[in-house]
Each structure stands twice: as structure tokens, then as C-alpha cells.
Amino acid sequence: MPWKYEIDILKELKDKGYNTTRLRQERLLNEVDIQKIRNGQDISIKVLDKLCILLECQPCYIIRHVKECSEIDNTP
């Protein structure tokens, strides 16, 4: 995965008053997306947008791009 989470998203959401029950009940995030976040898996741009709105932040606060070994050019 070329993306890494910069923060504990579910903790940050909880700190803002959005526990997983509320996220599901208010249809802010579905169970699949909550599980992807919990497991550190890729999320969609749509979910990233929702997270930015809920956390009042920019995407770079939530994720960062990480080059994988196969992407690194080792030529001098």
C-alpha cells in the first residue's frame, strides 16, 4: 500500500464525538470503511473527503504517500 495513516483515525474521530456506533447510525461511514480504517487498509477518496470534513482537516493530516521498494530508483 503506497499510503500510510498519519494518525489513529478512529481515536481522532472519537475525540471529536464520533464513536463507531454514531458513525454507523448517522450513516457517516459504513461498517466496511470502518473496518478498512481499523485494519490500515486503503480507503476511497470519498471516505477520505468525509474524514476531512468530520476532522476539519486536510488529507495530509490523515495520510501520506510512501514509496514502495519497487518504486525506488536506485540509479546514482
Explain what you see.
The structure is a single chain. The chain is globular, with a radius of gyration of 14 Å. The model has no long low-confidence stretch (mean pLDDT 91). The chain is built from 5 helices and 2 strands. 9% of the residues are buried. Helices cover 47% and strands 8% of the residues. It has helices at residues 9-15, 20-25, 31-38, 45-55, 59-62; strands at residues 3-5, 63-65. It has one domain (3-69). The protein has a two-stranded antiparallel ribbon with strand order 1-2. The protein has 76 residues and is mostly helical.
Task: Let me know the number of strands.
Answer: 2
Q: How many domain regions? A: 1
Shape estimate? globular
The average pLDDT is 91
Query: What is the number of helical segments per DSSP (H or I, 4+ residues)?
Result: 5
In short:
The chain is mainly alpha-helical and 76 residues long.
Features:
76 residues; two-stranded antiparallel ribbon; mainly alpha
Q: What is the topology?
A:
Elements: E1 3-5, H1 9-15, H2 20-25, H3 31-38, H4 45-55, H5 59-62, E2 63-65
